[in-house]
UniProtKB/TrEMBL annotation:
Catalysis: reaction(s): prephenate + NAD(+) = 3-(4-hydroxyphenyl)pyruvate + CO2 + NADH
Pathway note: Amino-acid biosynthesis; L-tyrosine biosynthesis; (4-hydroxyphenyl)pyruvate from prephenate (NAD(+) route): step 1/1
Lineage: Bacteria, Bacillati, Bacillota, Clostridia, Lachnospirales
Name by which UniProt lists this protein: Prephenate dehydrogenase
Source organism: Natranaerovirga hydrolytica
Record keywords, A-Z: Amino-acid biosynthesis, Aromatic amino acid biosynthesis, NAD, Oxidoreductase, Tyrosine biosynthesis
Length: 365
């Protein structure tokens, strides 16, 4: 990419690793350097050809890259920034991928790095952590928030904006307070709610029956309760003020529902669900939004060792690239099916034909 020859990633976990894998997968002509507290992760990424070089100390050369990405949990990013801020060059851009922006902007404000700092936050992720959970498609089509410091030049903002586009994400410029309030509502409080539901069931489940019966609804709404406790402790504490506003509002809503239920107020209860139904259904429809439609199929698979590999090999022999593949268990498919996501409609249709010709049962999605 024009003007970006080298980047440095500090923290090669889920997000840092996905950034590096995306650069490789898209063949961007950029050298990727990485630093992580975990040296075996660095060695693995180098052996896999995902990064060009790694370092176990934050050297001047490592810190002279065109863009330096802080990709550790939010409080560590802050500490790391304090450690390196005097060694950064005015030619670089320093950015982060943290879920909260106020804390890091406060560290940056009124220091020399205000001229080179642009906050960042890709709106994509997973309940899994670490380099092994990272993928080359995690950031694809995701909104990627940028929160430039007041003093950073327009050229630098344009450069980072272009980089975000080059990795297949969608840049969106925001002020950091706006960002923190919005993410408190759509990400941070939902993580608190998911974990509180799981803790609620744990403390109410006398004989393990609830755990046994838990089906799609409970599993859908609580997937994110499996996320890293250390990361979410740090996010909660650094975005305390915004989370408290949203949480207070949420508790009021629950109390209103409780009152309506106690009073058998059927109209209000209906309206509660109806309003949520309407608003939830108005969220981006994958077929009309700029977020690309996902081309997926479901395949009934026999319970045999190596079946996923067998199907993946069959498709790759026909030059079909798979975006994602995994087993799905739900009530619709009692025995579990293989869900395969493709990059385009052509691959989806071609796969259906091939798999059917090998007598697999295929459901289009
Ligand atoms: N998990 C998500 O869904 C998600 C989504 C968007 C943004 N984020 C943000 O991205 C950042 C990273 O999250 P993640 O999910 O990739 O975490 P992660 O745990 O998967 O990765 C963090 C990496 O940083 C390394 N690390 C931690 N402290 C370090 C230090 N002091 N020095 C060097 N390396 C260190 C760890 O060894 C690990 O490899 C966080 O700030 C988070 O808020 C996370
Ligand atoms: O999909 C998930 O598992 C996520 O939790 C991703 C998610 C979120 O949507 O809350 C988590 C944290 C981020 O900072 C951004 C995205």
């Amino acid at each position: 990419m024009h003007n970006i020859n080298q980047i440095s990633i500090i923290g090669l976990g889920l997000i840092g690793g996905s950034l590096a894998k995306t650069i490789r997968f898209r063949n961007l002509p950029i050298k990727t350097f990485a630093y992580d507290a975990n040296v075996s992760t660095l060695k693995q990424a180098k052996d896999e050809g995902i990064i060009d070089e790694y370092t176990t100390t934050l050297t001047k050369q490592f810190l002279s890259s065109d863009i330096i990405f802080l990709c550790a949990p939010v409080e560590y990013n802050n500490e790391l920034l304090n450690t390196i801020k005097n060694d950064l060059s005015s030619n670089s851009i320093i950015t982060d991928v943290g879920s909260v922006k106020q804390n890091i902007h406060e560290t940056v404000d009124k220091t020399i790095i205000e001229d080179i700092f642009i906050g960042g936050h890709p709106m994509a992720g997973s309940e899994k952590s670490g380099y092994n959970a990272s993928t080359h498609y995690l950031l694809e089509n995701a909104y990627y928030v940028l929160t430039p410091s007041k003093k950073v030049s327009q050229d630098k903002v344009t450069l980072l904006n272009d980089f975000v586009k080059a990795i297949g994400a969608i840049p969106i410029l925001l002020n950091y307070n706006e960002h923190d309030y919005a993410t408190a509502a759509i990400s941070h409080v939902p993580h608190i709610v998911a974990s509180s539901l799981v803790n609620l069931v744990k403390s109410s489940d006398q004989n393990g029956l609830m755990k046994q019966l838990a089906a799609g609804g409970f599993k859908d709404i609580t997937r994110i309760a499996s996320a890293s406790p250390d990361l979410w402790k740090q996010i909660s504490l650094t975005n305390k003020d915004q989370i408290l506003k949203i949480l207070t509002n949420y508790i009021q809503q629950l109390n209103t529902f409780k009152d309506n239920l106690m009073e058998d107020d059927a109209d209000s209860i209906f309206e509660f669900f109806n309003e949520a139904n309407d608003y939830r259904n108005s969220f981006a429809d994958p077929s009309t939004s700029i977020i690309e439609k996902s081309y997926s199929i479901m395949v009934d698979i026999p319970d045999e060792l190596g079946i996923i590999g067998k199907i993946a090999t069959l498709l790759s022999e026909h030059q079909i690239s798979i975006k994602n593949i995994g087993i799905v268990h739900n009530r619709e498919f009692e025995n579990g099916v293989l869900k395969i996501i493709f990059y385009n409609n052509e691959s989806q249709l071609k796969s259906i034909k091939i798999l059917k010709s090998y007598n697999y049962t295929v459901y289009e999605r």
